[in-house]
Specification:
The chain has about 600 residues and is mainly α. About 75% of the residues lie in helices and about 0% in strands. The two termini are about 60 Å apart.
């Protein structure tokens, strides 16, 4: 032991080392998370010579401990062992972790290895990293070979052409491995590696690896190749894509396994953008329609999610002829999840089609989906109505959709009612004051008496937003009298809503309205028999104090009306009322 090392620093290190050998998993886990502290206390030399070898031998442990270790070693741990020139020392323990049985640990170890690779020099990579990749790639157990696949892309661009040749050969072997898990890992890691290949090697080496994996007998391997296909298409010219990849595109989209078709449907827009507009129009429209009509609901759901993005690449006539009929079928789909996915995306077609086609083809579908039995479908349509409004105008929208919105406002699902409330200020802005007062004014006030708290809360926020849209004078006539009238209701929930509405709306009102219409009824509620109402009054008075203390007139109002009530509440028999009154007084007297 280094005699120059202070004795008091050795003890905690020894304790931590003991904890790593403890039988208690939680203690070992805590010790792993504190290894940066140990390394710091030991100093770089001892951390390299003692701590890292100790960690290298610590792989026979619980999975959660090994996962924590793999994570810690990837968090710039080289800073504790002397900097980048010694970073390769960390590859030892990480190599052992890359071969364990638990997939999560292996994946995290491989991720940490690639983080270490980012700080290694070319000489370190060629001397330490490449041999590690080769050892793992040729490992007897499939676990190490699986981990090795993720390590190629991180250093491919940094090494000499001769080593690049070896890496391509090594990866080709992984793609043809006997174990499906290894081939799956190769398919998953092929895309990032292909981005570093030269154009020649992309065609001579990358393409054969991809084709081998894409025709694998395991669907778990084939589904991973969809993202590789996109990378290849991005790197190739449209002519090369047509010659080299068209067959594979058709195979992936028409695969016998629904999981592969699902992956193809989920990434369809990326694929369409990668292959170019010509091939989209010649080939992919038919393939996309095929996915929209797939037998499996999951595939149709994924394909429906791509509708606006894919349609951007098409002419309006093609959308009307090929995509809109499929959309019409999907709006009647037997699966609620397909209809919900469609409801989220269908509004994206409106800007692409323009005014008249939207009115003719899409508006009937919106109305149909707004009456769907499944609440999520209705919610998704409502949340996207703004896009449609900009295309067809508010007059037609209000004639067609207002009855449906009023019906949904009384829906039995409170989440649907809440979604409608959140949409109201936007609608109000577009409808204008007279139309809103006539059609939706009473509806907005009725929500204040809803049985669900979230709805009452959303309704008060809604009134604040409406005040900002229509102005203070409108609020004085349309909102304030109705809100204050509820303060006399025998049911305490209504009185509570009055207080909470005042708290929310006050910052949007002026002092004259507060003085004339609000403060009197609010101060009466300060003596309410229910403590919850009394302390909410204190909170409301706090908001009043903060809002109006910027002017002389406002400060006089606070002195005369707010502070005396809070002083009285400070001596309330209920502890919560006393707490909120005291807090409000501190804010009022600043």
């Amino acid at each position: 032991m280094d005699s120059g090392f202070p004795v008091e620093d050795i003890a905690p290190i020894a304790i931590l080392m003991d904890e790593l050998r403890s039988e208690d998993v939680q203690l070992r886990l805590n010790a792993i998370h504190s290894i940066p502290t140990i390394a710091l206390a030991l100093g770089p030399d001892r951390a390299r010579d003692e701590l890292v070898p100790f960690l290298q031998d610590s792989v026979d442990d619980e999975d959660e401990v090994l996962l924590a270790l793999a994570e810690e070693l990837g968090r710039n741990f080289e800073e504790y062992i002397g900097g980048k020139e010694y970073a390769h020392v960390l590859l030892g323990p990480l190599e052992n972790l890359s071969s364990v049985e638990e997939t999560l640990v292996r994946d995290k170890a491989a991720e940490s290895v690639t983080k270490v690779a980012a700080v290694l020099s070319q000489a370190q990579i060629e001397e330490y990293y490449i041999p590690l990749v080769k050892r793992l790639s040729l490992g007897e157990w499939f676990t190490s070979r699986t981990s090795s696949a993720a390590l190629y892309a991180a250093v491919y661009a940094k090494v000499s052409p001769a080593i690049q040749d070896d890496l391509r050969k090594g990866f080709t072997a992984l793609g043809a491995d006997d174990t499906p898990m290894v081939r799956r890992a190769a398919a998953k890691s092929l895309g990032p590696l292909l981005t570093h290949f030269s154009q020649n090697h992309l065609l001579s080496d990358g393409l054969p690896i991809y084709r081998r994996l894409q025709s694998d007998d395991q669907d778990s391997v084939r589904l991973m190749t969809v993202e590789d296909l996109i990378v290849l298409a991005q790197r190739m010219s449209p002519v090369e894509v047509k010659e080299q990849l068209l067959k594979q595109i058709r195979h992936s989209i028409g695969d016998k396994s629904w999981r592969v078709r699902y992956m193809a449907a989920s990434h369809f827009n990326e694929l369409a953008e990668a292959v170019g507009v010509d091939l989209v129009r010649e080939e992919l429209i038919g393939q996309y329609v095929q996915l929209l009509k797939d037998n499996e609901a999951e595939v149709r759901t994924a394909a429906a999610g791509q509708i606006p993005g894919f349609s951007k690449l098409l002419d309006k006539e093609v959308i009307l002829a090929r995509i809109v009929p499929c959309v019409r079928d999907l709006s009647q789909d037997s699966s609620q999840h397909v209809r919900a996915a469609l409801a989220t995306q269908i509004s994206g077609l409106a800007p692409l089609l323009g005014n008249e086609p939207t009115i003719e083809h899409l508006l009937p579908l919106f109305l149909h989906l707004l009456k769907d039995d499944f609440s999520e479908v209705r919610l998704n349509i409502i949340s996207k109505l703004e896009t449609v409004n900009t295309v067809i105008g508010i007059d037609l929208l209000s004639d067609s959709l207002l009855p449906a919105i009023v019906e949904l406002a009384e829906d039995k699902s409170w989440r649907v009612r809440q979604a409608i409330i959140e949409y109201i200020p936007l609608l109000a802005n577009q409808l204008g004051k007279p139309f809103f007062d006539e059609q939706l004014g009473n509806l907005c006030m009725s929500w204040l008496g809803d049985t669900v708290y979230s709805i009452r809360e959303a309704a008060t926020v809604n009134l604040k937003k409406l005040t900002e849209v229509f102005g203070v004078e409108w609020a004085k006539v349309a909102i304030v009298p109705k809100v204050m009238g509820m303060g006399q209701h025998p049911n305490y929930l209504f009185r509570m809503t009055t207080v909470q509405a005042i708290t929310t709306i006050t910052p949007s009102l002026d002092l004259d309205i507060v003085r004339a219409d609000i403060i009197g009824p609010l101060l009466l509620l300060a003596n309410d028999p229910i403590p919850n109402i009394r302390f909410n009054v204190a909170k409301s008075l706090e908001v009043l104090a903060i809002t109006f203390n910027t002017t002389t007139e406002g400060r006089d109002f606070i002195e005369q009306q707010v502070i005396p009530t809070l002083e009285q509440q400070k001596n309330d028999q209920d502890a919560d009322v006393r707490y909120f009154a005291t807090r409000a007084l501190q804010k009022a007297q600043i």
